[in-house]
Amino acid sequence: MPPPAARALAKEEAHANNQTANTEESLRTRREALLRSGPELYPRFPKDSGVKTMSCKNFLGRFNFLTKDQTSKDLDLTLHDFLVNPRAAQILRLRSEIVARIRDFLRTSGYLEVETPVLANLAGGAVARPFETKAVEFPDRHIELRTAPELWLKRLVLGGFEKIFEIGPCFRNEGLDKTHNPEFTTCEFYAAYSNLEKLIGTSERLFTDLLNHSNHLIETRLSSLSSCELDKATPFRRLDFIQEIESAMDLKFPDFRSPNAEAEVVSMFHQRNIRLPSSLRLPRLLDRLSSEYLEPLCESPTWIVHHPECLSPLSKSFVDPTTGQRVSARAELFIAGKEVVNTYEEENSPFEQRRKFKEQIKYRDDENRTDIDESYIEALEWGLPPTGGWGCGVDRLMMLLSGTDRINDVLPFGNLRNVVALGNGGRDVVQNR
């Protein structure tokens, strides 16, 4: 006879499975009722009540424009009825389970969950264009929505909270595509006295746990989804940013600190017939080379490590003895060619941080509006201990675990275009097609 703990666990799993089965049966019944509905969607209203109703056929017909060609594919989620599409409903359930699993992993590891401001005078924390707004209380002041919670969380580490995390929304005023939405959810944690190797180890343990848990849920309760089949063997493979690109291009990078670095990197693009990015600033050029030569190599879980310093202004940096370049103590985890995790050792010198902020000002463009955050530098002067920081895009993680290739599919109401269109009955989207 199994011990009491095992019996209790089996009973709990049976109850969860029964609950899911009952829910699925209820959804099937409601879907069938909806599809069988007569001339009106809402027959409970008397015909003389003045309430306007329409048939299912006419209701769906209003949105026929969305399925007439492929350019409207990104609007499909505007029409998702979770009663009709069990896969959409199960992705939402999986997302809830995964977020809870991340939270449990971190709390069990001694992290304290906190909430930090979304509105501030300066977004900070990421090289990205922020959303701008005004507050009635401060009509003459410029206010931005946060692009990342990083600087707030590090202030709390300075205040004595050695292990903290936050799961919440961030906003970047940039374009939409299959993997990007201006509003997105991140999980970030910070640990005092941690280093890059410890951060990588924690990441690999967490990811392996999430993958196993996700596949278990899909096999037992979320049968409309497909299991995520990936090589989980640890340690994950590593690619050195500079060395791998130089090897692939058969060219050597110039010294990134030289005044002619940007022009020489542009010349490398021309020599290899690579399309230039819209901005010819050094960070954008290097990022473009990474997407060309490194990211396609990352089908299985792979770390890209030691990025050039200009790509990581908030990270500690050092001179790489192999390349002679200043690189960051940073690693990015890519899976299926997409970034899932970004982690690095935090710059804790106020003098170095000021230098790096000034360096970033040289690279400003339409998307990079970096400025010197004096309040953050002042906070560093109190003494930030050696700290490791970690960030993961929850939406992109869910795309991976649920087997979808569009961010729309893991957001209950789709991307920003869908959300805006919902408020206008789709009219604005039709006019702008």
Quaternary state reads single chain
Structural class: alpha+beta
Q: In total, how many beta strands?
A: 13
Overall geometry comes to: globular
**Poorly predicted segments:** 37-47, 51-80, 429-433
Helix content: 25-40%
Q: Mean pLDDT, rounded to whole units?
A: 83
Distance between the termini: 66 Å
Q: Sketch the major β-sheet.
A: 8 strands, mixed
Word description of this protein:
With 433 residues, the chain is α+β, with helices and mostly antiparallel strands. Strand 11 and strand 12 (338-345) form a beta hairpin. It is globular and about 65 Å long. Residues 37-47, 51-80 and 429-433 have low confidence and may be disordered. The chain starts with a helix and ends with a helix. The protein contains 13 helices and 13 strands. The strands form three sheets. It has an eight-stranded mixed beta sheet, sandwiched between helices. The longest helix is centred in the first third of the chain and has 33 residues, at 4-36. Helix 3 (86-108) runs antiparallel to helix 5 (196-220).
